[in-house]
């Protein structure tokens, strides 16, 4: 008996542990899983100090009931110029394929007609199609959706929340922001939603409504995870990142705040499986509104044009220019005859503000200028040689040949080294150029090589001063050192004719 008592005690302890675990699990799952008497686990939590208006809503039903009638499903038949990848939940660029559907939904689609009876792929007959989402913004039936949903559309139909399916036409579309505007062909007094008056903050609750996988009227909720995301979708990326579940077919649908106002248009997801992993991206309402206004009036978007090539101000470039912070947009050069050239902007200028609003990056300058109409007058605040100045520019119209408003993404970053590692010669003597200093040889372990400088490049100016001889380069390096700068800024022309600024770290033996 004495040998079995420890085992009994051990078993009792184990049972007690299991019972405690069951109590905890029961508390998580609901009172139905709790034993009859569990006073230790029924204590009320302390009252939260957060005031009611900022507290998450107990239900989103009120918001959904208010706005859901203004959300539509968009169905498109594609013309022959569309991609041959097949039908798509969002648009013609992605094939409708069960491999792209989350595993838990594949059987659902096999059984309920996504690919025909018994899961067989039907033979394709007639035009291919695309499915997406949208929302009505006026009583007379204007509808906002994504450009990629209706791109190459032959016909468009929208299905309202009340079940009606109506024909619509494409009024205009803008591929650079992925926004399109539709107009329902007949009818009036449609229920519609409104854009938000203020941008959401990170952490704000949002509700998304759309047509994922053809399941119209689907509601999901989450928060704004981040703002200002650049996902490489276009030249003016400025996405809201949200964690509300978004899937194929949600494209073009609205994201609402808790007041029932549209704060974004869902347009992309990041996912290895094709399904939601909590990384969705929405075009901010302020961008959509500006584009829609022009599409509604003119059927196209005309963007302001400054006529400069620019690049980011990295930390080492800031040091080369003697700036306190790596902010603004560095002018590589102003194209001849452009508004920027007429206003006197030059290579080496750092644009810091537009109409008094701070410019943090080259991409932000691109967005600000492109968001204005041709003919608008803007005041640019910039630094030249360490001195502040301003210029008033009348914007032109962006050329239709694909010329960018701004933004060179040449990367001038890298770790500096104690010497330049260059052998130089006058560019005119080696036949490379009529001006500047030619790079004859580059030490592969030197800091200049780390910056991407190659033999055959031509150094046009150093520290803001034009150079024509190797001695000029050495003089400007010594001048930068004597002023206490940690790097020297050089404007370099590559063998392909492109110019860029490069900041190379300095030391006492540099040269």
From TrEMBL:
What residues does the PDZ domain cover?
A: 300-361, 415-468
Q: PROSITE patterns under this entry? A: PDZ (PS50106), TAT (PS51318)
| One MF term in the entry's GO annotations | hydrolase activity
Stretches for region Disordered? 80-101
Q: Which UniProt keywords apply?
A: Hydrolase, Periplasm, Protease, Repeat, Serine protease, Signal, Stress response
Matching Gene3D superfamilies: 2.30.42.10, 2.40.10.120
* EC nos: 3.4.21.107
Name this protein carries in UniProt: Probable periplasmic serine endoprotease DegP-like
Taxonomy of the source species: Bacteria, Pseudomonadati, Pseudomonadota, Alphaproteobacteria, Hyphomicrobiales
């Amino acid at each position: 008996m004495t040998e079995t008592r420890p085992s009994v005690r051990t078993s009792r302890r184990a049972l007690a542990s299991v019972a405690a675990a069951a109590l905890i699990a029961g508390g998580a799952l609901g009172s139905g899983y709790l034993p009859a008497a569990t006073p230790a686990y029924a204590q009320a939590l302390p009252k939260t100090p957060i005031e009611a208006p900022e507290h998450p809503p107990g239900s989103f039903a009120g918001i959904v009931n208010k706005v859901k009638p203004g959300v539509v499903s968009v169905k498109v038949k594609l013309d022959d110029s569309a991609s041959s990848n097949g039908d798509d939940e969002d648009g013609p660029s992605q094939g409708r394929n069960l491999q792209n559907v989350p595993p838990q939904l594949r059987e659902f689609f096999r059984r309920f007609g996504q690919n025909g009876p018994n899961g067989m792929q039907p033979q394709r007959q007639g035009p291919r199609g695309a499915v997406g989402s949208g929302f009505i913004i006026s009583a007379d039936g204007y509808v906002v959706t994504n450009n990629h949903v209706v791109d190459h559309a032959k016909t468009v139909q929208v299905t309202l929340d009340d079940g009606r399916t109506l024909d619509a036409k494409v009024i205009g579309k803008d591929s650079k922001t992925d926004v399109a505007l539709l107009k329902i062909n007949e009818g009036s007094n449609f229920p519609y939603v409104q854009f938000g008056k203020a941008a959401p903050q990170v952490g704000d609750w949002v509700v998304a409504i759309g047509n994922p996988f053809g399941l119209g009227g689907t509601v999901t909720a989450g928060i704004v995870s981040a703002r200002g995301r650049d996902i490489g979708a276009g030249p003016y990326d400025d996405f809201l990142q949200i964690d509300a579940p978004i899937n194929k077919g949600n494209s073009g649908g609205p994201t609402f705040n808790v007041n029932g106002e549209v704060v974004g248009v869902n347009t992309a997801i990041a996912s290895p499986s094709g399904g939601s992993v909590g990384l969705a991206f929405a075009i901010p309402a302020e961008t959509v509104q500006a584009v829609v206004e022009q599409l509604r009036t003119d059927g196209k978007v005309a963007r302001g044009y400054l006529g400069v090539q620019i690049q980011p101000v990295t930390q080492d470039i800031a040091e080369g220019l003697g700036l306190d912070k790596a902010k603004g947009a560095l002018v590589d050069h102003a194209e001849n005859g452009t508004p920027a050239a007429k206003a006197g902007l030059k290579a080496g200028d750092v644009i810091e503000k537009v109409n008094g609003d701070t410019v943090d990056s080259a991409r932000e300058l691109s967005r600000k200028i492109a968001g204005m109409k041709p003919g608008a007058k803007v005041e640019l605040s910039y630094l030249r040689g360490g001195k502040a100045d301003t210029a008033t520019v009348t914007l032109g119209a962006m050329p239709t040949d694909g010329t960018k408003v701004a933004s060179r993404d040449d990367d001038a970053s890298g770790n500096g080294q104690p010497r330049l590692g260059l052998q130089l010669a006058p560019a005119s003597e080696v036949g490379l150029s009529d001006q500047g200093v030619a790079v004859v040889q580059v030490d592969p372990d030197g800091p200049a090589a780390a910056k991407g400088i190659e033999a055959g490049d031509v150094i046009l100016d150093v520290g803001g001063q034009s150079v024509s001889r190797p001695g000029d380069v050495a003089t400007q390096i010594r001048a930068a050192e004597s002023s206490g700068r940690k790097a020297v800024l050089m404007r370099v022309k590559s063998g392909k004719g492109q110019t860029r600024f490069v900041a190379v770290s300095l030391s006492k033996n540099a040269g």
